[in-house]
Structures are given as structure tokens and as C-alpha cells.
Amino acid sequence: MNIIQDIYNDYIHSQNEEYKKLYEGYEDWYGASSVGQCYRKQWYRTHDTPEKEMDEGTKRVLRLGTILHRDIEKAIETSGKSIMKMRNEKVDFYLEETVKLPDLKVIGHLDIAIVKGEDNVSIYDLKTAKAFAWQKRFGLKKNRDPNPSRNYEMQVSTYALGFADKIGCYTEDIDMFILWYKKDDSIMKTMKVSHEYVQYAINYWIDLNETLEDINSPDEMIPFEEPNVPVQDWECSYCAYTNVCDGKDRLNKIKQQRRGYGTKRKRTNIPRAYKR
């Protein structure tokens, strides 16, 4: 029995429960970080569907990202204003700022905002990545994902919409960034996000609200078959609702059909060692 591990696991659980309190009273709202995700998953989440229990190892891995967030935010709290004062710049920092889009039932918590004036605003969303994911996004062109998910870009765009409304500025006056942190060697990279994603985010939230308003059961939305139910291949593997949703089974069946499983294949004389 590893008592230290048990104590840490219990601590992480208590911290996760504290985090959930940020959303009390907004259980039927959508989290800004869920933008772009499967509509069926959104239905389960907003209808109090029990989630599949996450293993303790995964919780500890996710905790590392939280620790990094807290560390960077603490650095800004303790050193940010003094550094900006040395540069003779007046600036206001916002950390873990709650933003809301009531008409779209969206709530989120913006990592970092830097305000130098109503037309000089920058917001940052922090993301961590391991080497493989980093390579897919920032590596050589031949190694990059040709069709990467743009959910992160829409997420920071959602924050921009809520923050603009909160401080009374225009979304166009906000510079949006994703601050990437590579877990393997602590490389940090700042990526600017185009304002075109603001409209993509708006379109997603409007369509999600309209779609879910008209259904009584997630079974009315068939993942990977209904064109108006956006699902990305990787989502099912990390979904907390695979215990109640058959989306993963549908995905696997489609993948088998793509690969020709279950059909008779022609024999070939090409030696296995030379097959590509």
C-alpha cells in the first residue's frame, strides 16, 4: 500500500470537487472548453449523465497541466506588474477570469488577459502537449497533421467573445493567443489565433443550442452517421460517456469498413518485407 500515493490521489479528488463548484448553478450551460465537441457528448453533460470513472493515473497526469497553469498565474501575480512598471507600461492583468455568453448558455474561465487600454487587449489560453502532439502541430511539414482539430482556436475565441462583453470592448480589438508548453523539454511557444475563428465559434454555439433544443434523447443524434452531429475520430477514445453511448462502436465499424475488414482480399505474391 502506497500511503503517499493514496494521500495525493485523495487531494486531487478534493481539488477536482472544488473546481466543480465554479459551475454550480450553470449545470445546463456549456463549458467554453467544450467548443467543437460532439453534440451527443454535450447532451449527456448537460443532462446530469453519470460519467465513466477516470483512473487515478490519468487524474495525476491532468493535474500536471493544472499545476503549470497555477505556476504561470502565480508568476504573473508576483512579478507581472513590477516588470511592466519597469517598462513604464500601465497594465491590468486578469487571471482565471469568469466569462459568460448568456444567450448561448456558455460559461468559461479565461486563463490570462492583459489589458493596456480598451483597444489594446491580449488574452492567452495555456495548453500542454507531449512530443508526439507537438510534432503533429509544430514539426516538419511532412509530419504535421493535415487536418488538425481547431477546437483550441475556437475555445480562445469563445473567451474573447465573453471578455469583450465583460470589459466593454470589441472582439476585433482583442489579440488572441495560445501559449503552448511542451512537457518533454519545457519549450514554450506562443501561437496567435486568427479572428476568423470567432465566427466559427459563434456558429458552433448557435447550431448546438438549436439542435439540442429540439431533441429529447441523444439517440436522435447518431454519431458518424448524421451530418449535423459533428464528431472527431479521437473524441470517442477519450470520452467520459462511452459507458452509455455507442459512438465508439459505430466508429470502429466504420474504420473496419474503410480498411476492408470482413471482405475477401486478393492474394498477392509480394513478399511481406517489401510491402508498404
Features:
8 helices; Lambda Exonuclease, Chain A; 6-stranded mixed beta sheet; disordered C terminus; 276 residues
Describe the structure.
- The chain is α/β, with parallel strands linked by helices and 276 residues long.
- It has a single domain, classed as Lambda Exonuclease, Chain A (Alpha-Beta Complex).
- Helices cover 42% and strands 18% of the residues.
- The chain has helices at residues 3-20, 39-46, 56-86, 131-138, 151-167, 196-213, 235-238, 247-259, and strands at 30-31, 92-101, 106-117, 120-129, 174-182, 188-193.
- Strands 1, 2, 3, 4, 5 and 6 form a 6-stranded mixed sheet that branches.
- It is globular.
SSE topology:
Layout: H1 3-20, E1 30-31, H2 39-46, H3 56-86, E2 92-101, E3 106-117, E4 120-129, H4 131-138, H5 151-167, E5 174-182, E6 188-193, H6 196-213, H7 235-238, H8 247-259
Parallel strand pairs: 1-3, 4-5
Antiparallel strand pairs: 2-3, 3-4, 5-6
Helix pairs in contact: 5-6
Tell me the series of helices and strands, N- to C-terminal.
HEHHEEEHHEEHHH
Q: Outline the biggest β-sheet.
A: 6 strands, mixed
Fold-level CATH name: Lambda Exonuclease, Chain A
- CATH top level is Alpha Beta
Query: Using only CA atoms, what is the Rg?
Result: 22 Å
User: What is the residue-mean pLDDT, rounded to a whole number?
Assistant: 87
Strand content: 15-25%
In the CATH classification, which architecture applies?
Alpha-Beta Complex
Helix coverage percent of residues? 40-55%
- Which class best fits the helix and strand makeup? alpha/beta
- Unreliable stretches (pLDDT < 50, length at least 5) are 262-276
Number of helices: 8
How many domains make up the 3D coordinates? 1
Distance between the termini: 48 Å
Strand segment tally: 6
What characteristic shape results from the CA principal axes? Answer: globular
